[in-house]
Specification:
alpha+beta, 183 residues, 16% helix
């Protein structure tokens, strides 16, 4: 495949494949085709076969130039955000303080709320004081989501319950009969 053909194919949004031909649409709304052109099925104005992607002149989809824009200014186009599953109108889709473009550049999933896979969202990890990028913050071998003491490497499970009645007493407050409410 020629460098131009691979560049054209890399921006495809949809591809339809026939018996011996293919047609694709691109982000910019243009339509391209290639292959055996039986009875002019490629829509290029002739019936000659085409072995490289060729613009189908006069045929286009609705303008899709907005797919190439970056309304949330996170460094990712709307189309790329759709592919990644992030929100094109929110620079930080998962709310972890790192822009989607930065996360995409590092290979992280900007749509993932549980970045380290320990069963806790980054918000829950922030509340607990654990590291949202390490599944086991204290290094005791138990993931933060299952660790009762995620910041203490010497223990991870709750102590066993104490047998017997440990129910706290119930305190009932009764208003005196001669009490006068304060306005």
């Amino acid at each position: 495949m020629s460098p131009f053909a691979s560049q054209v194919a890399a921006t495809a949004t949809n591809v339809a494949i026939g018996w011996q031909h293919a047609v694709m649409s691109r982000v910019d709304g243009s339509v391209w085709s290639s292959g055996l052109n039986t009875a002019g099925c490629l829509g290029i104005g002739s019936s000659s076969p085409v072995d490289v992607w060729t613009s189908t002149s006069g045929l286009s989809l609705a303008a899709n130039s907005w797919l190439q824009s970056d309304p949330d200014t996170d460094g990712l186009s709307v189309w790329r955000e759709y592919l990644l599953g992030t929100d094109p109108l929110n620079a930080d889709s998962n709310g972890n303080g790192i822009p989607d473009g930065v996360e995409a550049g590092t290979g992280a999933d900007g749509a993932q709320l549980d970045v380290d896979g320990d069963g806790l969202s980054w918000q829950a990890e922030a509340q607990r004081g654990t590291d949202p990028y390490r599944a086991d913050t204290d290094g005791d071998g138990v993931a933060d989501g299952a660790d009762a003491f995620p910041l203490d490497p010497t223990r991870s499970a709750l102590p066993p319950p104490t047998p017997g009645d440990t129910t706290p007493p119930i305190i009932t407050l009764i208003e005196p009969t001669n009490a006068v409410p304060v306005p």
